[in-house]
Structure formats: C-alpha cells, structure tokens
Amino acid sequence: MVRVTEGFDGPTPDERPTPDGRRNELGIRVDPAVEARREPRRTVISALVTHEPGVLSDVSGLFSRRQFNIESLTVGPTDDERLARITLVVEEPDPGIEQVKKQLRKLVPVRAVRELEPDAMRRELALVKVDAERPDEVVAVAEMYGAKSVDATPETATFEVTGSRQKIEAAIDAFGRFGIRELARTGTTALARGTDETASPASTVEESTNQRSSPQPADD
Fold first, then answer.
1. What are phi and psi of 137, to 5 degrees?
2. Of 5, 62, 120, 156, which residue is least crowded by CB atoms under 10 Å?
3. What is the DSSP string of 7-64?
4. For 42-79, how does the pLDDT look when each residue is reduced to its tens digit (9 = 90+)?
5. Which pLDDT score, from 0 to 100, does residue 50 have?
6. What are phi and psi of 105, to 5 degrees?
7. Residue 206, H or E segment
C-alpha cells in the first residue's frame, strides 16, 4: 500500500500529537483535569427559614433523598420571631456543596442560603459526664479547656464545654482518661464576622407565605 502525501503540508498521521483524555458517549473528548475526582471539603452553610412547623422535616427529607454527607445540623430561633436559622456542616466535593445550596433554595420556607467564609465564628457545645474518682485531676482538665461544671456527685462529674469543633474534640480526648460515661454534642452553629450578614432574606415573610400556593420547580 502506497501512502500519497504530495500536496499536503504538515506532519504525517503518525507524527501528529494525540490529545490526552478519553471520549465520552457523544464522541467529545473529556479533559482529564475536569474528569478527575474532586476531594470533599468541610464547610458551613447557614439558611434562614420561616419559623413554622414542618420546616426541619422538609430540610431533613431533602438531605435523605439526595444522600448528602451532612456532618451536623442545628436549628433555632433568631432575633426575628418569624425566622429560624438552620446551620449545616457539610462534607462534600464542590459540586455537591453547590447542590446543597441549590436544593435548599428550592424549598418554599427557605428565605436565604449562604456558605460561610472559613473565618466565620463557629461554636459547638458538649456535655461530658466522667468518672470522678480523681476529682483534682478532672477539675484541672476542665480548667484547661474552660469547661463549666453543671453537675457533680461522689461518682461522676458533668461539664459543659463550648468552642470550636477542634477544641471540643481535644477536651473529649482529655476527659477520656478518666472514663467518659455519657456524651452529648449539639453540632455547630455559626455567624459571619463583623458587620458581614450571615444570611439576609430576599423577601418578606408575608411574600414567602403567599408563594406556597405556587408550583415549585422539580429537583434536578
């Protein structure tokens, strides 16, 4: 077989560069950097919601259907009695985090959603009940982590510890040497620093209530 190359400039087929990456089902070449698996990261998402029954059920049902990796969820009232704040700690790759925010915004009671900056004020509370056979040493550990005594008997001592997640875990490890009988943690709550608003509602509560009769977009 004779290959005719006269009249054509450029390299022969064997000399042409071959792009990296595979082709998908449509024949489009996929960039390996885009196709590469993205590592999950931990972040905090704050959502303002209308303070009414069933909101937490709606949010938890959303996460159950979507199988998002939620590390903790806290909810409580705000300075506005019509609104409550839900704080989520999420550990997902970036596309998953974007989906969490997108799906939250589709829920009618949700007024505002924001991913907080890494320097946001994050706090958690833990109650730790330990054996009190060595009371002096237990008190020393409590003082080291700024823990507050909330209950004491000849057999046990219970402390309240507040602070960052890292501080809480360090305190639990330290109390562990005495034997932890029971432990309860609240999960993380958070606010943005300074004058930066954590989440601002885009409309009034009355407007949000009026929208309940309108159809909502289907989940992607």
1. -70, -35
2. 5
3. T--S--GGGS---SS-B-TTSPBPPHHHHSPPPPEEEEEEEEEE--TTHHHHHHHHHH
4. 999 999 999 888 888 888 888 878 888 888 999 999 99
5. 92
6. -65, -20
7. helix 205-210
Tokens 């054509």, residue? 8
The secondary structure element, H or E, covering residue 208 is helix 205-210
Q: What is the pTM of this model?
A: 0.69
Instruction: Tell me how far apart the alpha carbons of residues 196 and 121 are, in angstroms, rounded to a whole number.
Output: 12
Q: 175: part of which helix (H) or strand (E)?
A: helix 165-175
Q: Which residue type, as a one-letter code, is found at position 17?
A: P
153 in Cβ contact with 138 (< 8 Å): no
Residue-wise pLDDT tens digits, 153-205 = 999 999 999 999 999 999 999 999 999 999 999 999 999 999 888 877 654 34
Q: Do you know the residue count of the chain? A: 220
The amino acid at residue 33 is A
Can you tell me the distance from the alpha carbon of 193 to that of 120, in angstroms, rounded to the nearest whole number?
A: 6
Could you count the other beta carbons within 10 Å of the beta carbon of residue 174?
19
Which residues are registered as beta bridge partners of 92? Answer: 41
Per-residue pLDDT tens digits for 85-134: 999 999 999 999 999 999 999 988 899 999 999 999 999 999 999 999 99
CA distance 93 to 69: 10
CA separation for the pair 85, 201 (Å, rounded):
11
Q: What is the mean pLDDT of the chain?
A: 82
How far is it, in rounded angstroms, from Cα 99 to Cα 106? Answer: 11
